[in-house]
Write a structure and sequence with these properties.
Largest sheet: 9 strands, mixed
CATH class of the largest domain: Alpha Beta
CATH topology of the largest domain: Spore Coat Polysaccharide Biosynthesis Protein SpsA, Chain A
Strand content: 15-25%
Number of domains: 2
Shape: globular
Order of helices and strands: EHEHEHEEHHEEHEEHEEHHEEHH
Radius of gyration: 19 Å
Number of strands: 13
Mean pLDDT: 88
Structural class: alpha/beta
Number of helices: 11
Length: 311
Amino acid sequence: MLTLFATPRAFRGNTGVIQTNAIQSWLLLHPDIQIILLGDEDGTAEVVRKFGVLHLPYVGCNEYRTPFLNSVFDVAQSFARYGLVCYVNADIILLGDFIEAVKRIYNSDFIKSVNRTHEQSFLIVGQRYDVDLDSAIDFNDHEWDMKVREYVKLKGQLHPKSGSDYFVFTRGMYNDIPSFAVGRGGWDNWLIYQARFLGVPVIDATRVVTAIHQNHDYSHIPNGNTVAWKGTESIRNAELMEGEEHAFTIEHSNWKLIDIGMKRELTMRKLYFELAALPVLVPYLHFLSRPMQALTKLIITIRKGFVPQIR
């Protein structure tokens, strides 16, 4: 049903525990799950043998040995067993509601009815829950899913809509990805922008999917968190993005998956982001950008709602 691929870091210490938790949760999603781990970080080969997943060690990397996103996507899709694929960060635990959401969308008539340019193509994204979870989960416990869910409800915090940690899409939809450095800023935002630019539905599944991010440090990167988001690789990613206007977030999704199905979100906040995106997605309307945003800001201010910063 689904090919799921990731680029793990070295399986050392707490990072090894976190990533092993994540991989085991993926294996339990569905009998027809193909899991691909890319890269040659320490411990990956051993984990691959232990869990019987596919290992593709040879991907393009920069001088810091950080994988290039375009290489990761190209290699993974070349070996994908299924037409539906998902890139997921290697520290994300996925529960049963994830695969149920994917099946609901994939098996529905919705995609074909709204998609005029790429038949049955779509992108599913969603917010994650951040939580401290630094011990191995007992996946032999038949109640592990429920226990983890309850722990997240008690201790977890919903991450802002600035990025997504999983991307479910149809194989072949992304054919021309810039050479972003994986794990540095910007590439996730570009993937959302590109899907909107291609005209495929971008679906926010936050309401029905509990994606769990196990908090970690950045000790795998020299100078840690600062370099990860403000260093040379992130600066290069920003340059490859060709402008902040291409940094779309989950706010720019045009559909939302809820318990009863798909819906459009009709709020002033959503209107602002749609108006801001319009000149980016339809370049010849660029001259309308500032007046449309200014009008929306005025209306939102009057209603005492979300007040964005107009650049």
